[in-house]
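Internal tracking record. Fields below are filled automatically when a chain is submitted to the structure queue. Please do not edit lines marked as system-generated. If the sequence contains nonstandard residues, flag them in the REMARKS field before resubmitting.
Queue: standard
Priority: normal
Entity type: single polypeptide chain
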Amino acid sequence: MIASGPQTTPHMSMELTFQRFTSERNSSPVMDWTTLPAEICEIILTYLDLDTVKALRLTNRKLAEKCIGPRFLGSIQQPTFDVSPQNLRSLHALACNPAISKMVYSLTFLATSLDTSELEKNVESGKYIVRECHGPFFTATDVAYSPEELLNAKSELNWLKEQQELRSNESSREMIELLELALKGFGELEFIHLDGAVIMGRSQRGSAGHGEWHPLWMRASHVFSLVVTAIVKSGASVKKLDVYRSTPRCCIPSGHITSYASGLNAKQLGILSKGLESLKLSMSAEIQNELEIVESDEDKLSDYDEASRRTFGYSAGHLSCDDPRAVLADETPGITSLLKSASALRELDLSFRQTLVDGSLDSYDRIIESIANETYFPRLEKCALSGFLAKGDSILLFLQKHPDLRSLTLHECSLTAGSWTPIFSHLSQSMPRLENLSLGNLFGKHMPYPKYAPRRPNSNDEKQDEEQGDQEIDGMVSLHPIWDTDKPPRWTSFEADHMYRVHTRSFNHEELKKGLVFRPKPRGRTKGSPELMQWMRSRKALYGRP
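SYSTEM-GENERATED OUTPUT FOLLOWS
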């Protein structure tokens, strides 16, 4: 019998070939690494981390070309940069490489906040908190530092403070110049994305939902200013711009956007919106520009207040509704100025977050009013407006000017004047190309269908119901259409008086043909439930004060 040898896979075959090749290389001074077949080079690169691949490219020009394979290109086509002079120099160098710059189609710029608060507290107390998730519940346990861990924590804290010092000495002018040169090198980009993160150590980074919100928002506004200015100066064409829309708990105050826009003339605004097909932007009401740092006496805090601060953070940075700085002062907000020349826009996604203490101000309904009155997007197909105050006439005018919308989202919108009734009628009867409509958390006057109103047992109430049957009601719209007899899903509704109040509902093209006539909301008190609590938490997380 002839013994069969071990089976070899194609991957093993390549490795054997490489071994034979390197053996021949050792005996032949003529052969070198740059003559390796492309397939073998790719296999070798899979065993190396990305930083090593980048370093390898710097050793030899021919080897640099060999390293431009799928692994390297996968990281370089959509690079992500923390915004700093050093990283922008690297971006400029990337743009100067003619072979690579043509392959880059997307850039992500990170606005980062250097948060020392937790480390300072931990180092002072000698212990840190371990947080664990157990289904819907969270636990937090204090753990004492070991001597080595405490030493490392102090080292991390010193590093963070050094980075804060370096950041305080950054030159905005230098960073704009570097970014301008880089964007000129790329010329055209498919996508620029602004994102945010919190740095809590050399290798410890959290999402925008961690730590103190105000420093991150200030940094996010600054990064937005740098990027917008560089786009205008470079003349670069950007098709899609996402400004913190997918970043949790991170917005640009509307007044800051107005300040940036007011510094640009009509020609510069045209450069910014040239070729822009998609704009996504998270904005907010006004906040304090400079924080007043007040040292609080921790001994006076109750255990509850201390635990609350650990969980939810501090409220510094918010303005009161009574503060004159909180009012939307400009008749034409900055976002409208940025949009006026965006004639190629196909997608618009704007979100607004409430930041004022003790309520909201009706003056912010001018944002939607000015967009409706002063802009027109002939190619607009997809629009989402979330968290805004608005007049009913403003929303209706915007829809009348854009009858070819295919997708529309209206979430957490409250009317300061007018009614939802003509808006619902227009959506179902006058927008034939609308294929998807998503409604959620709509507040204001509206006309429910009285036939489906629940009747109370005594005759006086029945008579009163009949007298009020043709009157509009004010409050949350229960998005339960009269033609839908199915029980609404739990995640889109909550129970009240043995009926369901539907807060979120989507409609396709066929459902829109049936009409947007809704049942009245239940009269009784809302029943406490997990669905209700989840709805309240979701609204606060997405649209409430950070």
